[in-house]
Each structure stands twice: as C-alpha cells, then as structure tokens.
Amino acid sequence: MNLPLIIQQFLRSELFRYIISGSIAFACDFSVLVFTTEVLGVHYLISNVAGYAVGLIVSYLLNIKFVFNHRRFDHKQGHEFAYFTIIVFTGLAISELALWAATEYVDLPYTWSKVVSAGFVFVFNFVVKKWLLFSPARD
C-alpha cells in the first residue's frame, strides 16, 4: 500500500524529524524534571532548568545530525552553538513562565504544566532555529 504523496513528503520533512528529535529531547528533559523534583526534592522551577539543560544537549546533537538539511554556521560551530544556546535559553524563559503560570494560577500539576509549556517552546524553537541557524545562507 502506497501512502499519499503529501504524507510521504511529510515523513521526509525537517518538521517530521524535528517532531521526533523534539520528543526525544522532551523525554530526557521531562525525566530529569520529575526525578529532580520527586526524588531529590528540588523545587519544580529549578528542576525544570536542569531538565532543560539536558534537553538542550540532546536537541543540539539531534538537530545538527538528524533534523535539518542545512547548517548556516557549519564552518563556525562555536557560533552555531552559541546562537543555538541563546535560542534555547529564550525558550527556557518561555518554559519557566508558562510552567509557573499554569502551576500557580491555573492550578495544574507541574507535570501537566510542563506539557503545556513544551507546546509553546516547541513552536518557538522550530521557527527560530529554522530561520536563523538551519536554512541556506542568504546572499
């Protein structure tokens, strides 16, 4: 059985690969968040930073090796990682704000708040990374 062309194209797209890599990075991030909060007794907002740091490393490696077809700063990997880190830390600020607001004001458990915040961060990170880091150089 052949899949429709639009589905075949989607399965070969950067967006699809980003969804896969983002899911892996999120699983690492979320696991560290829950472990650090529940087992080590650290406040969930601090645990979120630890989880996010682990997710940053996993995400970077997957993004450069698996997800994106172009690397604008391939020849300057220090610059690329610096920009990547700035983007991700902006995403961390969004994550912290959404996590805090959903937990403290909407009264969601921090784990559900993390899932909500991840949706916002996913969209932000993909759009900015694709535009700034992983598109062909503009002449």
Description of the molecule:
The chain is an all-alpha fold and 139 residues long. The chain has one domain. The protein contains five helices and no strands. Helix 3 runs antiparallel to helix 4 (77-104). The termini are far apart. 25% of the residues are buried.
Structural class: mainly alpha
Strand tally: 0
Count of discrete alpha- or pi-helical segments spanning 4 or more residues: 5
The total domain count is 1
Helix content: over 70%
pLDDT averaged residue by residue: 87
Rg, Cα atoms, Å: 16 Å
Measured between the Cα atoms of the first and last residue, the distance is 43 Å
Beta-strand content estimate = under 5%
Q: What is the string of helix and strand elements?
A: HHHHH
Which consecutive residue ranges, at least 5 long each, have pLDDT under 50? none
List keywords for this structure.
139 residues; mainly alpha; 5 helices
Give me a quick take on this structure.
It contains five helices and no strands. The chain has helices at 5-11, 14-39, 44-67, 77-104, 110-132. The longest helix is centred in the middle third of the chain and has 28 residues, at 77-104.
Write the layout of secondary structure elements.
Blueprint: H1 5-11, H2 14-39, H3 44-67, H4 77-104, H5 110-132
Helix pairs in contact: 2-3, 2-5, 3-4, 4-5
